[in-house]
């Protein structure tokens, strides 16, 4: 909190190569802070912190509009095409401690593609990786973002129908994080109205946590 009329939320994004992880960060910030493009290999090799300008019209407190600032930590993909698990883990751990060590982390965003269902081994490795970074309460602070939802829509699936037909692997993951998930239409996610909708959903998850933050006690 910078003052009584402003709120800052701290977010970190995790995901595999080409899930749209860096693009999600850019959409939330309303900028092009993070490099994001189609590539046969992992694009992001280090952690990078992006900060939004003051965002109005998203949330209110005690009947008054509250300005919002968003801080997003973009991370290398895991698995990574050029870095080992240990290299990714240590890089992310140091960045989390450096950027959010004092204020804490509000939410971790696990980015998955709605058009590429996760396999059991992939899901297990991902959740284990996040737990190693965030600790035993990771489930309380993790939200699943399903990108490329427009492709599911083109195939005739509403969100409800998609989840009805979803794999047991994905459903188990959503259950682990207490059904905190958001569908993102990649064709619309950069639109201002869509951004505000996603931010409101994230704020609702933060309220569910009673505005608690995950304290990161890793030593640099």
UniProtKB/TrEMBL annotation:
Lineage top rank: taxon: Eukaryota
Keywords associated with the record: GTP-binding, Nucleotide-binding
GO MF entry, a single one: GTP binding
All copies of domain AIG1-type G, residue ranges: 6-220
The keyword GTP-binding is assigned to this record: yes
Pfam families associated with the record: AIG1
Gene3D superfamilies on file: P-loop containing nucleotide triphosphate hydrolases
Family (UniProt): Belongs to the TRAFAC class TrmE-Era-EngA-EngB-Septin-like GTPase superfamily. AIG1/Toc34/Toc159-like paraseptin GTPase family. IAN subfamily.
Protein name: GTPase IMAP family member GIMD1
Organism: Semnornis frantzii
Gene: Gimd1
């Amino acid at each position: 909190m910078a003052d009584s009329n402003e709120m800052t939320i701290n977010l970190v994004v995790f995901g595999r190569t080409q899930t749209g992880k860096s693009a999600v960060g850019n959409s939330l910030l309303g900028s092009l802070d993070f490099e994001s493009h189609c590539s046969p290999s992992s694009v992001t090799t280090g952690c990078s912190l992006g900060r939004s300008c003051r965002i109005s019209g998203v949330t209110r407190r005690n009947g008054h509009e509250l300005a919002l600032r968003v801080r997003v930590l973009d991370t290398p993909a895991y698995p990574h095409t050029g870095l080992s698990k240990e290299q990714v883990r240590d890089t992310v751990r140091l960045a989390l401690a450096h950027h959010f060590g004092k204020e804490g982390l509000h939410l971790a965003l696990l980015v998955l593609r709605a058009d590429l269902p996760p396999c059991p081994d992939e899901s297990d490795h991902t959740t284990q990786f996040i737990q190693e970074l965030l600790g035993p309460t990771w489930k309380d602070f993790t939200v699943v973002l399903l990108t490329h939802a427009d492709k599911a829509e083109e195939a005739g699936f509403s969100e409800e129908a998609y989840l009805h037909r979803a794999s047991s692997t994905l459903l188990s993951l959503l259950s682990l994080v207490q059904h905190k998930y958001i569908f993102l239409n990649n064709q619309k996610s950069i639109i201002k109205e869509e951004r505000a909708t996603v931010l409101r959903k994230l704020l609702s998850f933060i309220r569910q946590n009673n505005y608690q933050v995950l304290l990161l006690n890793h030593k640099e």
